[in-house]
Specification:
single chain, rod-shaped
């Protein structure tokens, strides 16, 4: 390579190096000009997010617990309602049978006493 080619390459490298330094300075000035969030704000934001997440999970758990309790109450009420309906029917059947027995006994005793 000729000496002129080497000088040309060196000048290009020097220009590229100067352009890179200008870009680094510009980037550094942008860094200083941009607003940086203080660490305490960032940390409290993360803590707030975690607290909201924990509260959401607690609300979901409570809602699940309440729903489960409601389903158990509904099941118990259905069983009790069925029992009460069946109990009333059974009571009516028993009263009918007792009335029949009473009529039969009165008829029987009236026959014996009248004879």
């Amino acid at each position: 390579m000729a000496n002129g080619d080497l000088l040309d390459i060196e000048k290009r490298l020097e220009r590229m190096h100067l352009a890179l330094k200008r870009q680094e300075k510009e980037l550094e000035s942008w860094r200083h000009r941009s607003t940086r969030i203080p660490n305490w704000i960032r940390n409290s934001g993360v803590a707030l997010f975690m607290a909201i997440f924990a509260q959401t999970m607690a609300a979901v758990w409570w809602a699940s617990s309440i729903t489960n309790t409601q389903m158990n109450i509904i099941s118990d009420v259905e069983v009790n309602t069925e029992y009460r309906i069946a109990s009333a029917e059974r009571y009516n059947e028993i009263m009918i049978e007792l009335t029949k027995l009473q009529v039969m006994m009165e008829t029987h005793f009236n026959k014996h006493f009248n004879d």
